[in-house]
């Protein structure tokens, strides 16, 4: 165990395209062979996914995004982790919007027994794992999670946890400690299994989309938020990792990389994360469409609220306040003035276009504090609906924080095909345009060794897999390019 702390730990994960991607309802399935063929018919599913995601994720937002509520999708990425001894596999949703790891536990009657996503679900059994220990309510982890002693705490009483997500789904149970097994980069394109004990929730009662009725059920959720209770913070506190993680989603192949640790290649620029926020917030300074400036509402700049722009890879599209959306849409469509627009499914602006969209429409450029820029190309923000019918991915959102500040929410529409690095050591986020199916270089903090990590090698070698119900959007983009 001792030399484990000498090394950088990495979760190395390959995205894979789900065989069946059911987003809108249980009957609507997208077999993988459709990926390069006809356009996807159900646009609303994209937004429904986000409405639910938003509900779950942004508890400070009190206005729903709209959509017709048909979606039952609450998933984004999921990954396979090993827990306990002997090790058992668990599929958990990766969520940058919450702070703890929890899995369904034995004895839970409301927990899902099967998943429409195609994997076998597992209940964690503390009795069956030799290394499992209960976390008492007087444990330091427990008292710091609750900001102080729990009233009525007696010896032998376990530490309870309870989370209510924005869509009303809940999970509750008690904290346990056990081994978490993951892959560590050990050389160029090589990984070895490694473990560390972590404290996580043993789920006894779930409700809403987390309970047995849901079609996209998983074994639990791994929160990659900033709090001390997250697995990332626990591994960092144990000296195993730096609090740095990154993802690179290839919208062309549906593949990609998810890694924990310091990335040395590609080089990327950064901006500061707004401190003390529940989510990953950045300060937007400027927005340009084809070189022309869009006027932003003043409170998007407001450092005191600091909530202006949220980066969330669990959201599929990108959401803008009405005044921003209207200016942006006008400028995006300006080069093709006179083109007939259609409103599809009451919410998507669409049009017919036969030429190369990257030549016909402008790029959209966001500039953040410290000069970090993020560019969305027409092939990122337009997608094919039906033959020659393109739709705009930018969405108008009335969403505001509870105290009335406008929000910009940037999802995979703008984050794909970029390496996105979340550095919680230095409170920065950064990105670089990148081929997410190639390899990145990561650094072993203790030895200084630099190793290549390739998405391709991971898909076969990793004991961790990451999938995405967002493949739907990726499919759209794939079709557009091919
Ligand atoms: C944890 O890692 C150590 C060292 O590699 C190994 O001996 C042990 O069996 C592992 N434990 C589990 C539960 O995987
Ligand atoms: C989180 O952990 C750090 C380092 O262990 C500690 O300094 C900080 O006070 C903790 N924060 C909270 C809110 O407990
Ligand atoms: C970083 O920013 C500089 C200055 O704006 C720019 O020239 C460079 O291309 C950027 N690098 C990356 C990887 O985006
Ligand atoms: C954080 O910033 C320090 C000082 O600027 C730098 O030495 C260190 O490499 C940075 N950490 C990471 C993970 O980039
Ligand atoms: C990305 O990298 C992969 C692996 O090196 C390569 O096969 C593929 O052609 C690259 N894609 C692009 C768009 O350059």
From TrEMBL:
Statement: the UniProt record of this protein carries the keyword Cytoplasm: no
Signal peptide (from-to): 1-26
Segments forming domain Peptidase A1: 77-432
Active site: 95, 312
Stored PROSITE patterns: PEPTIDASE_A1
GO biological processes: proteolysis
SUPFAM superfamilies (alphabetical): Acid proteases (SSF50630)
Pfam families in alphabetical order: TAXi_C (PF14541), TAXi_N (PF14543)
Family per record: Belongs to the peptidase A1 family.
Protein known as: Peptidase A1 domain-containing protein
Organism (species): Phaseolus vulgaris (Kidney bean)
Origin organism lineage: Eukaryota, Viridiplantae, Streptophyta, Embryophyta, Tracheophyta
């Amino acid at each position: 165990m001792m030399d484990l702390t000498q090394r950088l730990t990495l979760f190395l994960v390959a995205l894979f395209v789900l065989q069946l991607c059911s987003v809108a309802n249980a009957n609507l399935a997208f077999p993988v062979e459709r990926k390069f063929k006809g356009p996807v018919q159900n646009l609303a599913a994209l937004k429904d996914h986000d409405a639910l995601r938003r509900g779950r994720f942004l508890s400070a937002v009190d206005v729903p995004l709209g959509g017709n509520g048909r979606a039952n999708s609450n998933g984004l990425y999921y990954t396979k982790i090993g827990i306990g001894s002997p090790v058992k596999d668990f599929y958990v949703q990766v969520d940058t919007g919450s702070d703890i790891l929890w899995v369904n536990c034995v004895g839970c009657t409301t927990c899902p027994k099967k998943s429409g996503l195609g994997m076998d679900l597992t209940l964690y059994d503390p009795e069956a794992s030799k290394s499992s220990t209960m976390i008492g309510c007087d444990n330091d982890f427990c008292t710091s999670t609750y900001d102080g002693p729990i009233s009525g705490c007696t010896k032998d009483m376990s530490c309870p946890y309870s989370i209510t997500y924005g869509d009303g789904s809940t999970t509750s149970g008690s904290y346990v400690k056990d081994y978490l097994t993951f892959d560590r980069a050990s050389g160029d394109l090589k990984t070895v299994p490694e473990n560390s004990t972590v404290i996580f929730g043993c789920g006894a009662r779930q409700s809403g989309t987390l309970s047995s009725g849901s079609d996209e059920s998983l074994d639990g959720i791994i929160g990659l938020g900033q709090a001390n209770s997250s697995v990332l913070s626990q591994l960092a506190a144990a000296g195993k990792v730096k609090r740095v993680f990154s993802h690179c989603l290839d919208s062309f192949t549906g593949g990609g990389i998810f890694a924990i640790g310091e990335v040395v290649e590609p080089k990327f620029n950064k901006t500061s994360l707004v401190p003390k926020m529940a989510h990953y917030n950045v300060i937007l300074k400027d927005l340009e469409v084809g070189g022309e400036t869009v006027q932003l509402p003043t409170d998007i700049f407001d450092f005191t609220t600091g909530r202006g722009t949220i980066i969330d890879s669990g959201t599929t599209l990108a959401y803008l306040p009405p005044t921003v959306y209207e200016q942006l849409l006008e400028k995006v469509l300006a080069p093709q003035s006179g083109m007939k627009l259609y409103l599809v499914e009451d919410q998507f602006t669409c049009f017919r276009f036969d030429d190369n969209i990257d030549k016909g429409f402008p790029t959209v450029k966001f500039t953040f504090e410290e000069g970090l820029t993020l560019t969305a190309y027409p092939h990122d923000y337009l997608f094919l609906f039906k033959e020659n019918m393109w739709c705009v991915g930018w969405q108008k959102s009335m969403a505001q924080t509870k105290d009335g500040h406008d929000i910009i929410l940037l999802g995979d529409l703008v984050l794909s095909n970029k390496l996105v690095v979340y550095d919680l050591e230095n409170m920065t986020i950064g990105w670089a345009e990148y081929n997410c199916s190639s390899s990145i270089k990561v650094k072993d903090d203790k030895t200084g060794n630099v190793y290549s990590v390739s998405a391709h090698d991971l898909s076969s070698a990793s004991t961790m897999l990451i999938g995405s119900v967002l493949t739907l959007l990726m499919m759209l983009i794939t079709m557009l390019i091919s």
